């Protein structure tokens, strides 16, 4: 094999390694964004799980509204850390981010309706929000397990 061909193959291999390292760095950043989103939703879910409840197991409205008001700010504000991370994942075209975005839209809608309208509050509405949070957690975990092999 001529030296010139060896040299050109070596350069092509180095370029391929650099490209793969760039892809790896990008995927690691996407993975950390997704892990941060997962942690935020898990924290929110845990907060709702541990909220004070009546003897019948119904969460007190004041405690729930205070928690959901904080979540609503993070879900609604375009400048929030949570929404910035979701936008980064969408822009990077991570698989299933459309499904994740739809779930987050549903969560945003339910949280907003409970916070804004006291008549919408019920134990069922709180459990629906917890269920949506669980679906978001499951989707994020599945993406991490399949796409990032975590």
From TrEMBL:
Keywords: Coiled coil. It comes from the Eukaryota. Residues 10-47 form a coiled coil. It comes from Desmophyllum pertusum. This is Uncharacterized protein. The keyword Coiled coil applies. The keyword Coiled coil applies.
